Amino acid sequence: MNEPAATNGQALPGRYYTDPTLFSAIKEGLLYKSWHFACHESQIPETGDYFAFSIMDQDVFVVRQKDSSLRCFYNVCQHRGHTLVEGAGRANLLVCPYHAWSYALDGRLRGAQGTKGQANFDRSRICLTEVRLDRFCGFVFANLDPEAEPMSEAFPGVESAVRALAPDIEERVYAGGHEVAESCNWLVAVENYNECYHCKMVHRTFSSGVIDPGSYDIQAFSEAAKCLHHTAKAQSGDTAWYDTSRSDYGSFFLWPLFSLQIYPSGLVNTYHWRPEGVGETTIHRGWYSKDGVIDDAMQRVIDLDRQTTFEEDLELVKRVQRGLASRGYRPSPLVINPEGGIDSEHSIDKLHEWLMEAIDG
C-alpha cells in the first residue's frame, strides 16, 4: 500500500471510505484479524444453543457445548459448502439442510448418508473449521485470525475499568435490541460515534438528557489498549431522561467495531457495526438488564435514544458518505485541542493512527 504512515492531524482522503480496493486491503489487514462481537452469553445459555452471524463475507456461529463451554465455527458444511445453521436456535446435532450431513456440537462429523463402506471416506478426518473465540465481561467475541492475541492482551485493563463503573456487568442479561442498515462505510460510522464535536449542534437531547456536555471527553484508554474511553458527568438537571444520580457516564470503544456503553446509573447498552461493503454497514444496538426484562424506565430511554441520537446519526453518516465521494472534497486539518474535551477530534486522529498501523504493518 502506497499510503502515508500517519495522518498528521489531517482528515483522511475520501478514498479510504469509497475505494473498493482500499476496502479490500482494510479487510485483509485489519478486519479479518480483529475481535468481532458475536452475542451475549445469556443468548445461548443451554447445551446446543447456537447463534449465527457474519464477519463481512464469512459466516460463523457460536454454540454451547455439553460441558457448558463455548466454541465457534465457520458456518459451512464440509461436504459441498452449504450454510449449516441460520439465526439462533438449539440442536443436539448440527444437520446440513442440503444433504443432511450431521455434526456433533464439537464440530466432528457424525453422519453422512450414502457413505457407508466407501473406500476413500474417513469420517474421523472431517470436522468443522474452528474460529478463535473469547469473552469480555459476559460478551462473546470471535476472531478469524487463529494467531490473534486474547482480548485481555489486546485491551489490557479495560475489563477492570468496566467493572468499576458497572460492578454487576457479568450478571446482565440481553433484554432486546434493533439493527439498521447504514448507508456508509464502517469507518464513517465509527468516527461519528467516537467524537462529540457535533453533539451540541445535532444531539441536543442527548446533551441535555443523559450527559453534562461540559464534562464530556474521549481519550485513548492507554498506550497498550486500542480502546477509546468516553467519560462524562451525568446530566442532573430537570431535562434528564431518568434518574441519573447513581453513577456517571462511560463508554468503552474496542477498536475497530464494538462499544460497550454504560449510561448513568448503570444502564448497560452496546453498539456494534458489521461492514457489509465499501459503502454499507449494519449497526446493532443492544440493551441489557439484570433480569432480561425492559422496565418502563429503560423503555423510555430506549425510545428517546432511538428517536433522537440514533436517528440523528443515521442521517449524518449517510450525508458524510456521499460527501466523501465528492470531487470537491479536500481533507482539512482535524480540530485537535491538547486538553481534549467535547470540541476536539483528537479521538479521530487516534482511530486513523490505528488504521494506518494495521494496513501498513
Explain this structure.
- The chain has 361 residues and is an alpha+beta fold.
- The protein has 2 domains: 15-32 and 156-360, Naphthalene 1,2-dioxygenase Alpha Subunit, Chain A, domain 1 (Alpha-Beta Complex), CATH 3.90.380.10; 36-143, 3-layer Sandwich (Rieske Iron-sulfur Protein).
- Helix content is 24%, strand content 27%.
- It has 9 helices and 17 strands.
- It has helices at 15-18, 20-29, 151-154, 158-165, 186-193, 199-202, 204-209, 296-324, 346-360; strands at residues 36-40, 49-55, 58-64, 70-74, 88-90, 94-95, 102-103, 109-111, 130-136, 139-143, 173-182, 217-220, 227-232, 249-254, 258-263, 267-277, 280-289.
- The protein has a 7-stranded antiparallel β-sheet, with no helix packed on it. A 7-stranded antiparallel β-sheet has the order 11-17-16-15-14-13-12, sandwiched between helices. A 3-stranded antiparallel β-sheet has the order 6-7-8, with no helix packed on it.
- Strand 2 (49-55) and strand 3 form a beta hairpin.
- Helix 2 packs across helix 9 (346-360) and helix 5 crosses helix 8.
- The chain is globular.
- Mean pLDDT is 92; it is low at 1-6.
